[in-house]
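Slide 14.
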Amino acid sequence: MSAPQDVSAKPWQTQARVRAVQKRTVRVLAAAQIVGGVGVGVSVSIGSLLAESVARSETYAGLARTATTAGAAAVGVPLALVAQRHGRRTSLGTGWLVAAVGGAVLIGSAVSRSIPLLIVGMLLFGVGSATNQQSRYAAADLAAPHRRAQALSIVVWSTTVGSVIGPNLADPGAAVASVLHLPRLAGAFVLATACMALASALLWCLMRPDPLMLSRQYQDAEERPESGTDIPAARARVTAQEKKPQSGTLRAGLRHLRHAPRAAFAFVTIVVAHTVMGAVMTMTPVSMSQHGTGLTVVGVTISGHLLGMYAFSPAVGWLSDRIGHLSTVVTGQAVFLVSAALSGMGHDSVGMMMAGLFLLGLGWSFSLVAGSAMLSEATPAALRPGVQGTTDTAMNVVAAVGAGLAGPLMSWIGFGGLNAVAGALVLPVLAFWAFLVRAR
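Slide 15: predicted structure.
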């Protein structure tokens, strides 16, 4: 198969300056994802331990996950609105900075054993997760269409480093806490706070020019008239166009999703994929433990799942640009179905469970990378940040509900039944795909 030709790229996207800025943007985003992702990774494993330590109750252990998820869901749209008005650099730089402030508040909660500070800190810390997720869209602002998914996937891949390092900062954090005379678990959040602050500094200082603002400048220039035409009228049209998305971003974005089938398909794909992944992943360790699997094997299984989520994303992005976003999304749904079958029927087999959870992560990667690229492609630049923020908010809210229902559901119909329900959630995506194919 020959490589795709860049026939759909706009002339400005092929300019040397734009291509150079795009490469720089992706490098800066990747660096920020690596250091900021370390902080996000801390909350996954150490956040619940800190909550239990501060509250001196196991009941509060789950509070950390809930508050962090709530914080991420709450700021998805606000971060997008900041990007809409002031650009990606301001939005992402501010997001990581707020998360760093949350880390400092958590350190204060550990010292004072204050539950209100713990909750506020976890909510602010969750902003880092939302910023981590929205960073992928910034990689696509200047990318040529046939490289959009690959650029986006590199930023997703960079999260791998943080997801591996972050959960293992307990011992280094304890050494830091000893030096600073802090509670033992607070040390990991000292490191996490420093990492998130560094991510913010990288974006504020190095992501210049802003990719979203630069893309708008070129798009505005395309709409300006040639010499001899009514320049004041043209300027008025450009000004009106710039103000319209700012005053009605959410309404216009939701209206776009209702009337643009490909954008709506991408929205549904991302939300369903995150929900399926979150529900099954949350209950897999519980199921394995119930069947006598040791914690070491459970840890290896989760690591394999994270490997599937992030490590192969550049290959997924390359494939998506080569065979098309729609085909890649459908491939991801097929991977989800195989994963559900392996996990659902293999609860007595460690090998099948490990393979199922790895494929669960891989199906998520296919769906998120291709779906995000498709969402960017199918949405006008003026509406893009708002639609992307709405998508991420919906993704986090629905996934949180799905994860919350997964426990009672497994108690009712078992782990096999939970996987059957997860597989059934994929079917509407496939039905939507069939509709798009017939509509061509």
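Speaker note: The CA atoms of residues 174 and 242 lie 50 Å apart.
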